[in-house]
Amino acid sequence: MAKKPLVIANWKMYLESPEEAKAFAQGLKRKVKKIAGVDVAVAAPFPFIAEVAKVLKGSGVKVGAQTVSAHTGAHTGDVSAAMLKAVGVHFVIVGHSERRAQGTTLGHTTGETNEVVHAQLVQAAQAGLSPLLCVGELERSADGAHFTYIEEQLTSALRGTQGLTGKLVVAYEPVWAIGKGKEFAMQAEALEETVIFVRKILADTIGRASALKVPILYGGSVEADNALQLVTAGGASGLLVGHASATLDSFVAILNALRGIPRKI
Ligand code: PGA
Predict the structure, then answer these.
(1) Is the dihedral of CA 106, 93, 174, 116 positive or negative?
(2) What three-state secondary structure class fits 198?
(3) How far apart are the CA of 210 and the centre of ligand 1, in A?
(4) Where are the beta strands (DSSP E) in the chain?
(5) DSSP state, 129?
(6) Residue positions annotated with a catalytic role
(7) Is residue 191 packed enough to be buried (19+ CB in 10 Å), middle (13-18) or exposed (0-12)?
(8) How far apart are the C-alpha atoms of 166 and 219, rounded to whole Å?
(9) Which residue has a Cα nearest atom 7 of ligand 1?
(10) pLDDT, tens only, 190-228
(11) Angle, CA 42 vertex, CA 36 and CA 43 arms, to 5°
């Protein structure tokens, strides 16, 4: 049976109340009943996860978190992979560019490093969750330095993870394309080339057989008008959707654009 495209809503902080999140989840549950041929998931903010998971139980829509602690034990303010699992989480985003972004606060460097992302991925996988690893360059360069950057993100996140990649999903999200309008998304031809590159690095890092099982999503200014092109011509296994997942209508429009499309890998 052909695999279905996987479309994940990354709500970020767009939905601001539990009531809003619950209403979205109830609406989505109704809508997906009529949309065959697409796998759907929602990455919710921590305070809404338990409620959203309750609403979506049995609907086929998987619920995820947007980050996870790199630790276990005494870490004030952190949320562990085991805690997420206990409230119905299936997958966890690790390494999103908005969390990797480097800055300084009161003289301390902030932003998650490749080492932190690796530790988060291991925590998620060891707890039986599916790690959704985000990678992507800040900018493209004529000498192809962006490929080296992506390779480094992949290999450092995945080093020593043999036996832990069974549920791995990768999202390629070029940072320069995130959070804009559909005209700023990556072009399908360039995406196809990058998806092949990501698959090759995965094969070199975790082995070819394992690499062929990993869905590679695209994210960055996905909207209903470019969704189909990015999956068919771009060769992505699915999409990670930010701003267009902030309302039920714009998210469902993307699901409808992809219904029944066979996915390559
Ligand atoms: P965007 O966000 O769709 O708003 O570009 C994607 C993401 O950051 O995951």
Answers:
(1) positive
(2) helix
(3) 27
(4) 6-10, 39-44, 62-65, 91-94, 103-105, 108-110, 130-135, 169-172, 216-219, 238-241
(5) P
(6) 96, 173
(7) buried
(8) 22
(9) 242
(10) 999 999 999 999 999 999 999 999 999 999 999 999 999
(11) 160
